[in-house]
């Protein structure tokens, strides 16, 4: 980079340099090397980067940032269909960029562009400022725009999908675009970190250069993130914890019996299997979490089981009918006094060793004696409690697996519904895209036909004009020939008529000459006669000579007048 001298202008940079304004970095967040797509876009119009306004550069930068964030690959055809270039009024060749009809992506610009044309500098055209392969595509000298008609046919297949995706979120320049967002987009593109704490433009430019030298691509990073997200969703679908049900005792974390899917608040029922005469009572008891289930083995917490345990116990009246008396548990009196509504909050039976021993002893026929009368009563009670505890743990696992299976099935159903909805939307979008592409193709075909028809009409008009010019030339030549012939004929007729008149005049003049000669002869004879009479009367010859000389001087010019009159008559 170098600063300009007082005599240098922005529209005429020195050889090997191009012009940039400071506003391109402070107002538009431009970076080095220049983005390849922006260089190709400006090269397609043969205009320099400094010739476009800050709003036009914001359009280009904003679309590029959105493409980095959405992981979309843009081409020159996308930009030429999204944006239009128009000349700004004024003496200099400046241009502004605006979105095409129904193709707006970036909006929310300030009502007036900031004054940026006062501070400019020159940048060398080299590998540090220009992307690889674009050194010959940098326009340095300012000139008029070149609208090449061949670019009108470049319509990408995914034009509409790309426009909808880019314009979907955070496209308000004043609210959403900051330097941090541009740096983040470049980090997504290259996969490196860049600090934005410094306000120095040199620090920012060095960070941009560092980003573009990274090895990891955005596509690889996105693929890794998608794979991790899919694995996480699969684990959550299988091991997702159940929501805690309200209404449980504080600190217990257990659901109420009325909210459980597999149990209901039904009253106690007594059943006497096989006519044994024993009154067995089934009581709904909320289980505790099993200590045998490993918590956190897979990274997820085992939820409370939404069900109840069915615990079978001996009724107080049925115990007296057995052989030998069984001692009641220490809580038997309290249980008998409790109402039916209190059974939902009782302890699991395996925590009461006496009740566990009574239940196990009554599960098979013939019944055992009272557990207290056994030789190993303590061990039998403890073994019975552990046995029921194992059953409780098994029930907990079964209910947990059942709940997880149901959640998995519900998630599959929701997934199938979402997939069907997505397929429907994809089908609609595909149909809309095909319809739009058909309309675009039809419009292009109509434009092509119209252009061909206009070319044919122009060719026919040019041929007709040429034919009419040729006919006009031929007609003009014929008319000139006819006019020349008419002139010659008229001249010949006039000449002949005039010749006849000349001959008539000459004949009359000849007659006049003859008469004049005769008159002259007559005058001479008359003069001779007068001379003879004068001599006879006695005049002398000398006197006559003098008189004749005087007459000659007096009438000497008459002969010259007659000669001139004859010459003029002969010329006519």
Automatic annotation (TrEMBL):
It comes from Arabidopsis thaliana x Arabidopsis arenosa. This is Uncharacterized protein. The keyword Coiled coil applies. Residues 239-350 are annotated as: Disordered. Residues 401-478 form a coiled coil. Keywords: Coiled coil. Residues 341-350 have a biased composition (Basic and acidic residues).
